[in-house]
Amino acid sequence: MDIDAILAQCESALAEPGTVDLAELGFWKVVARLKRDPQLVARYGNRVATIDQRALGRWALVMLPIGAGIGAMSLLTVVGLAVVSLAYFVDAPWNGIWVLLGTGILLGSTHTLAHFIVGRIVGIRFTHWFIGRTPQPGVKIDYVSYLATPPRGRAWMHASGALTTKLVPFLNLGAAWGSHSPAWTTWILLLLGVVMIGTDVFLSTKQSDWKKFRREMKYAHQAG
Question: Of 169, 166, 164, 162, nearest to 210 (Cα)?
Fold first, then answer.
């Protein structure tokens, strides 16, 4: 594999207008090679990080500095918790409505927060908060720090967002019970939690957080 040639192709493609398929150019094969060889990370890490950052700039619909993005998600999480707490002060059916509304807000805010918090714990830095074309929010990793982090740490950073969002509906079952919300609140939360777990099992293992988790755990097992 000619890493210099592949990266040069990626850099040239990103210097021109239009869509760039990094996978087709072999970029992710280079990344996989770097993950197996720390010496290559030292040599090519900054270059890989720059290419990855430029590619995200083309794909993302919205990008904010990481501090602003995490600040906004933290504030939104506080709002979500406050909305859930309102259920304790109103009668049915409003208590159930507040629980479900707060759950929706928390689902939107905690995913990226979990990635950020766990990532920082294991040594990964982040550059931006963004909304991509999926359009799920995300946090952009600094690829130099990502490649320098042990694969198990990278794996759990990827898994943290999925685990957190799956916990939110089940944790709010307590709020539904404590606020004496209607029974349909509990059933909706249970259904939401089950559907989200099913989505992870059948979709995320193939194209999202759990796919990345399994990929990095393979690197961990190969490293012994």
Answer: 162
